[in-house]
Write a structure and sequence with these properties.
The protein has 413 residues and is of the alpha/beta class. The chain has a domain at 56-98 and 130-193 and 269-351: D-Amino Acid Oxidase, subunit A, domain 2 (D-Amino Acid Oxidase, Chain A, domain 2, 2-Layer Sandwich), CATH 3.30.9.10. It contains eleven helices and 19 strands. It has helices spanning 12-23, 61-70, 83-95, 99-113, 116-124, 153-160, 170-176, 199-212, 255-259, 322-335, 380-395; strands at residues 4-8, 27-32, 47-48, 76-78, 133-142, 165-169, 186-196, 216-219, 222-227, 233-237, 240-244, 246-249, 269-278, 288-291, 296-301, 304-313, 344-353, 360-364, 367-374. The strands form three sheets. Strands 3, 4, 5, 6, 7, 13, 14, 15, 16 and 17 form a ten-stranded mixed beta sheet that branches. Strands 8-2-1-12-19-18 form a six-stranded mixed beta sheet, covered by helices on one side. The chain has a three-stranded antiparallel beta sheet with strand order 9-10-11, with no helix packed on it. Strand 1, helix 1 and strand 2 (27-32) form a beta-alpha-beta unit. Flavin-adenine dinucleotide binds at residues 9-14, 31-34, 39-41, 44-47, 221-222, 250-252, 254, 273-275, 308-309, 349, 351-352, 374, 376-382.
Length: 413
């Protein structure tokens, strides 16, 4: 079977979708304005977790938000001038925080995450870069030992999905991770996880494999997409006009703008995150570590110790705020007294975030040959391979036994 499919956006979601389509015998083109996998998919914290199935909006969260907003090192910020445009999204986000909604969303996250480690290993097979996904734990470290509990909703959700979750005390934590501060008095250890040693190199390796298997990658800026009378699509780039029988929109945080001229409105926010990469850290961590109080993640990678986090809402076109990155340097020094923080690089990128923590996956009403594959928020690295499989099944009309209704692009209309 050959089907002429073009994927707009070669982030990790677009690349994984391309690989799954090639496996199904389709003829596939990936278009990106820059190098594949080097936008948001480059700078994440590298957590690859079947058990990251707890949405952002949870019961009681609203009580913590005011404190976070006034703390310059806090995990969330909203640019004051952006508040009027952000308010609707924020209220819809908070409305998702009932226990019933959290359970429903968690089940939909589980569908996208459960096979993520196996699927990465499958895609990396034969690239020579198989080592880039390493087995590890995800350790949630707490300064207040009373808060490290197994009977919370998030751990109940993880355990009922099959996760092996253990509570450990401070001394046991230091045995696992000798460089962490003794201020951490307890931790929740989530086992059966993996971490990326370089998310950017994973993107490059998988894009190379995609090309080797017959896929085409073109560098071009996509400006518009136009439906044709026969159901095919025309897309306009800075290199000209092209056609495809089917179009997949995988442009991450930039996807919703492309769809607006078609009358499609998606409440997609750009949720800017930052990382600091300590290039000569003098320490190495054995696992992905989350500082639960300050909500950031640290992980040793090929090129240093990466500390990533923060959620900044300022609009898609707002420039990065270097103060947020510098804040991560301070937070990292509190995580480990042994860290050499002298040399570092900073980065920031835009998470594509919907208010219910779920992506848009599926066709658009009235446009059966236009398929959404965007909106993976905090979980796009880990959700990319399964999303790719699902989207490939949709594009090739392959039957699947998955309820797609939680990811419907028009669910907020
Ligand atoms: C600080 C931080 C930490 C994170 N940690 C994790 C983590 O540990 N684990 C995890 O699973 N997820 C994590 N994430 C989330 C994850 O990185 C994202 O969900 C994921 O990268 C989204 O992938 P994507 O392919 O949808 O988007 P992107 O990687 O942004 O790709 C979109 C692509 O579209 C292209 N594009 C956009 N507009 C156009 C245009 N007009 N023309 C042509 N091309 C265009 C861009 O160049 C880009 O390459 C984190 C994110 C951040 C910011």
């Amino acid at each position: 079977m050959t089907t002429d499919i073009t994927i707009l956006g070669a982030g990790i979601v677009g690349i994984c979708t391309g690989l799954s389509l090639i496996e199904r015998g389709a003829s596939v083109r990936l278009i990106d304005r820059s190098e594949p996998g080097q936008a948001t998919s480059f700078g994440n914290a590298g957590v690859i977790s079947p058990w990251s199935i707890v949405p952002q909006s949870v019961p009681g969260l609203w009580k913590k938000i005011p404190g976070w907003l006034i703390d310059p090192l806090g995990p969330v910020s909203v640019k004051p001038s952006y508040l009027p445009r952000f308010a609707g999204w924020g209220l819809t986000f908070l409305a998702q925080g009932s226990e019933a909604r959290v359970r429903a969303v968690s089940a939909a996250m589980d569908t996208l995450n459960s096979d993520c480690i196996t699927l990465y290993r499958h895609h990396l097979n034969g690239t020579g870069q198989e080592h880039l996904v390493r087995d590890s734990y995800y350790i949630h470290a707490f300064r207040n030992a009373d808060e490290a509990r197994l009977d919370t909703l998030d751990n109940e959700l993880r355990r009922s999905a099959g996760a092996d979750v253990e509570r450990i005390d401070g001394p046991t934590l230091l045995e696992l991770e000798p460089h962490l501060t003794e201020d951490f008095k307890a931790a929740i250890v989530i086992k059966g996880q993996a971490r990326a040693l370089s998310p950017g190199q994973i993107g490059t390796a998988l894009a190379e494999k995609f090309k080797r298997l017959g896929g085409t990658i073109e560098q071009a800026n996509v400006r518009a997409i136009l439906p044709q009378e026969d159901g095919a699509w025309r897309y306009v780039t800075d290199t000209g006009e092209h056609t495809a029988q089917k179009l997949i929109v995988a442009m991450g945080a930039w996807s919703a703008e492309l769809l607006k001229p078609l009358g499609i409105r998606i409440p997609l926010e750009a949720e800017r995150g930052y990382h600091v990469n300590f290039t000569d850290p003098g320490i190495s961590l054995n696992n992905s570590i989350m500082d639960v109080d300050m909500k950031f993640v640290a992980s040793s990678m090929n090129d240093g110790l990466r500390v990533a986090g923060t959620a900044e809402f300022a609009g898609l076109d707002a420039p990065p705020n270097e103060k947020r990155a510098k804040g991560l340097v301070k937070l990292a020094s509190r995580l480990s007294p042994d860290l050499n923080a002298d040399a570092y690089t900073t980065w920031s990128g835009q998470r594509p975030s919907l208010p219910d923590s779920l992506p848009c996956i599926g066709t658009f009403d009235g446009f059966p040959n236009l398929i959404a594959a965007f909106g993976h928020s905090h979980w796009g690295l880990m959700m990319a391979p399964k999303t790719g499989r699902i989207v490939a099944d949709i594009a090739t009309n392959t039957p699947m036994n998955i309820d797609l209704s939680p990811y419907k692009p028009n669910r907020f209309s």
